[in-house]
Amino acid sequence: MTSDRYHTRVAFTVVLVTLALTACQREERYFEPPTKAVTPPPVRLSQIQPGAISTDTSIEHKYEDTAYALSEGKRLFGWYNCNGCHANGGGDKGPALMDNVWIYGSKPAQIYSTIVEGRPNGMPSFGGHIPENEVWELVAYVRSLSGLASSGAAPNRADAMQTKKPEGNAEEQKPVNAAPSGASEHP
Amino acid sequence: MSAGSLSGLGSVASTQALRERARAIVGRGETMLDGAGFGSQAERALQQAWRDEPGLLGFLKTTDHKRIGRRFVCTAFVFFVAAGILAAVMRMQLAFPDNHIVGPDLYNQLFTMHGTTMMFIFAVPIMQGMAVYLVPLLVGTRNTAFPRMTACAYWLFLFGALSLWTGFALNAGADAGWFAYVPLAGPQYGVGKREDIWNNLINLSEAMGLMVAVDLLTVILKMRAPGMSLRRMPIFVWASLVTSLMIIFAMPSVMLAANLAQFDRTFGTHFFNPAEGGDVLIWQHLFWFFGHPEVYFIFLPGLAFVSSIIPTFARRPMFGHDAVVLSLIATGFLSFGLWVHHMFATNLPEVGKGFFTAMSLTIAIPTAVQIFCWIATLWTGRINLRTPLLFVLGFFFILVLGGLTGIMVGSVPFDLQVHDSYFVVAHLHYVLLGGAVFPLFGAFFYWFPKFTGRMLDEHLGRWQFWLFFVGFNVAFFPMHLLGLAGMPRRIYTYGAETGWGTLNLVATIGAAVIALSVLLFIVNVVHAWFKGPRADDNPWNASSLEWATPSPPPAFNFVALPVVASREPLWTREEDEPTHVSGLSAQTREGLVTTVLDAVPDVRYSYPDPSIWPFIAAITVVVWLFWSNMTETGMFYGLIPPAIAFVAWYWPTRKETVEQLLLERKP
Amino acid sequence: MIGGVHDVQMPGGAQAQAIVGLWHWLLPICVLVFVAVMIALGLALWRAPRASNDTAPDIASLSKREPKVTRVVIVAVAVSTLLLLVLLAVSVMTDRALAQLPLENALHIELTGYQWWWEARYDDPDPSRMFTTANELHVPVGRPVIVTLVGADVIHSFWVPSLAGKKDLIPGRDTTVSFRADRAGVYRGQCAEFCGYQHAKMALFVIADAPDDYARWADRQRAPAAEPSSDEARRGRDLFLARSCAMCHAINGTSAQARHAPDLTHVASRMTLGAGALENTSSNREAWILDPQQFKPGTNMPPQNIAPQDLAALSAYLASLQ
């Protein structure tokens, strides 16, 4: 074996092994929930705070950006009737989820709070009704509705009547925080 | 009189000047050398004209059908071993009930990768590779008709296979079965990129199949040695002809299906979405319209190997040569009328399904004709029981058994019980391994001397055969019983209460024996490559034209193209008949085009020179495919590099133009 | 013990019996042909003289016909064709027999295949007598059953080998399969079309009861859930409704009416949990609720973060759902 071929083979093996070890995180299927129960941080709508600046607790689901989590989130979005108020992301009784307007924050921990604690003006509290792991999957899916999930992991079209562009083809909408709308606007 | 030097013409600027220079050379009385036998000026000129550049560049640029054919065979065999290892892991998982070696996700990837690799990356390419190597030799010509296309096909095939397996290494291995039924492989339930990679593989491997099929078809119909009329054509060449025609009709179906599915997944179309007017079942129709002929792409070359080996080792021409050829053609036609037998459990109308039962039973008749002709050949011949014939005998046992279980599953009511059970797993392995892999090993032993110039070891060959034969039956026969006992396919485990444990354990033991036999083969090949006894031109004393060349053949195959006067050219000697073609150029890559029916010489043909563009074109096509998976614009912008590569591929070079001018003769 | 007859060659009903009849034609004829061909091959090898690589080939057949051998081959092909025709005829006759199952007074069931469980809705002309159950069918012996097959998500396949041949549940293509159980007993079936992670554990049980037993079972299934008798069971019901259970499961007679997961109104009366994954005992129910992924990884039911006393209460409630 010439030295050239030997080196090529070594390089090839190293590359292959590295690939195998890093493996594609995005394709991970996890059947046991990857994170333990955590208390969500409070919702911050203002940057003014007393005392020292506290670091933003960015609690994340370990597999938030996996195709499996997003597809599970999409399934649960239908199963738990989020469509009833948020209509496939277009909103009606509840605000639209596919635009760039986020009343209570677009960070995963903030969306988690929204789902678990509920919000004024009609968002029910699902804490205790939806297991924590599934809430994180819903969080990931809700973010994908406005294109915030990576296109490599975002779900494709559903095998159902078409209501919107598939999440994987949605354009990314940079989140803009808005003040909550006045109570008088909704009966 | 020296061989005309072409290099001096490279510096001439205009076409007019080229013509004058060419005329000057020809006018000086230099003749084209050809047909003068070994060791002569012609042979040296041919070696010069047909040699590849040394090193990596020559490897990438070659258009020598033998190098390309060998590449196909070696690469496909490597993937055969890889897919076999996956099968071994599956068998370990299934050996005991409630086993925990692999979980459901990995198991789904294992059987999908096993099936996809075996069907798309091993079976069809290896058969095509053997044909690419052997057909030009068998028909007595120097190369295939479109060698650059076949070279490009190899790279497409390699990159497709590597992309599938890289996906597997990255936890993105296809996991919806080798048949990728929608909706499981569709956009909603086929989560992630796994099925996108599978769809890409289909595009690449089927493009390869089509390219090689067109090439083989052309060389078989238009470039046979003078005198090799269709009736004198070897059975192997007939099988390649029928297979290539079948490929051209069938492969577009699965490419279409995979692309429609890919559009559903990437662009949100609704081809397979019943809620928006699509249909789930059309996937199955499109897939199996290809899928059933595909098993015949694999089976017919296997039959062809048998038809090549039996006459040589029975020391007589094939009995019923015409009947065997007609049976191959009939099988090719009939195979397009069977596809619904994979869909008997769907809600298609019962009368329609009955038609497909009738067709499935009918296709047994041409196969039966061939089997009886083979037995008749052996009965009336004199048997030389060497390893190739041993594998053919194994083929008889296993294929006939598999074919008969095929008759059983061809019947609708019975299939409604055993469809998607281990009975079908047993059937398909009996016909595929029996009908293709056993003949393939026989073919390896038969043609290894020709490919490499060395003989494989007979002793190891016998051991390999018996281990393979016994191991195969121990592994797969119990699966018939498992299917009848209700065990479905594609399950990663089963409960102890089902009672399937014992037979599964037996099957796993058989699988281990098969693995051992394949290992023996690899040992045999490696040892023979370095230390095997040298082979002469015709070690088996066979009758077809490939044995008229040295072992291994030089790049140009024949110093002088043969003229054929009978069906068994090396066994007969016709008096007063021409034996060789003369008058073709030995300084350029020139060949002879003959007519379709009677192979009367027709036109002189210039083979394309080696080129790097097929390799580059293949790379650009693969990049385009993957880019279009990721973004919508990739679909269009990604087409620009392939366009450039294909234009460069066909761009005429100065050297080729000059050669054409040199070879022109006024009528 | 999870049991059930699950064998093509042990028919318990008319359809499976007809197919076994076909098998009794297919097997002997195919064995006969196989043995004949192997004997012919063996004889050919045995009686032909031996040769070596250097033996001169016999090229007489290139110029001379071989009438005797030709005759034998033609006869062999003719016999094979005849046998194939016989098999075709038997196959068609079996097809007809399957299609001619008398369907008067049939029981109608709509079976929907989900990933990875079966929902069965017993239909009735009077809608108030319809009821839904999961993974376990009871049918009366001797009465034909027409099952409408609906694919909800991906393609599944309904296969109870001892009762009938299989039929696929294809989304967008509803179809029916009919059978009749002629012998009382437990018949096991399994999904026979690859449908994802837990295709392996999607079993179905068809229990053929005597007509009176069936009527009693159906009446019990129609009734709403029994009122829990103990405090612990009542607390269990409250937990069921307050936690995530009611988000997917239905129990008739309570406010839990979601249909994404098996109906649990009479869950304690079934043989298995998780479509044949586990035997249906109290401790198995608790283990299943705590972490279904241990038994059926990839299934849609999530693990529960639940305190032991709550789990016990829940289990007590479920045990009362006979």
Tell me about the largest β-sheet of chain B. 2 strands, antiparallel
Radius of gyration over C-alpha positions of chain B, nearest whole angstrom: 26 Å
Strand order of the largest sheet of chain B: 1-2
Strand tally of chain A is: 2
What class would the helix/strand composition of chain B place it in? Answer: mainly alpha
CATH class of the domain at 60-187 in chain A: Mainly Alpha
Let me know the CATH homologous superfamily of the domain at 60-187 in chain A. Answer: Cytochrome c-like domain
Shape of chain B: globular
Mean pLDDT of chain A: 77
Quaternary structure state of the chains depicted: heterotrimer
How many strands, what sense, and barrel or not for the largest sheet of chain A?
Answer: 2 strands, parallel
* Number of DSSP-assigned strands of chain B: 2
User: Strand order within the widest sheet of chain A?
Assistant: 1-2
The total count of helices of chain B amounts to 21
Explain this structure to me?
The complex is a heterotrimer of chains A (187), B (667) and C (322). Chain A has 187 residues and is mainly alpha-helical. Chain A has helices spanning 3-22, 67-79, 83-86, 108-117, 132-145, and strands at 101-102, 176-177. Chain A has a domain at 60-187: Cytochrome Bc1 Complex, Chain D, domain 2 (Orthogonal Bundle), CATH 1.10.760.10. Chain A has 5 helices and 2 strands. Chain A has a two-stranded parallel sheet with strand order 1-2. In chain A, helix 4 (108-117) packs across helix 5 (132-145). The longest helix of chain A is centred in the first third of the chain and has 20 residues, at 3-22. Chain B is an all-alpha fold and 667 residues long. In chain B, 63% of the residues lie in helices and 2% in strands. Chain B is built from 21 helices and 2 strands. A two-stranded antiparallel ribbon of chain B has the order 1-2. In chain B, strand 1 and strand 2 form a beta hairpin. In chain B, helix 4 (65-94) packs antiparallel against helix 17 (501-531). Chain B is globular and about 85 Å long. Chain C is of the alpha+beta class and 322 residues long. Among the domains of chain C are: 107-221, Sandwich (Immunoglobulin-like); 231-319, Immunoglobulin-like (Sandwich). Helix content of chain C is 35%, strand content 19%. In chain C, the strands form 4 sheets. A 5-stranded mixed sheet of chain C has the order 3-2-1-5-8. In chain C, strands 4-10-9 form a 3-stranded mixed sheet. The longest helix of chain C is centred in the N-terminal third of the chain and has 34 residues, at 14-47. Chain C is elongated, with a radius of gyration of 28 Å. The mean pLDDT of chain C is 95. Chains in contact: A-B, A-C, B-C. At the B-C interface, helix 5, helix 9, helix 11, helix 12 and helix 13 of B face helix 1 and helix 2 of C.
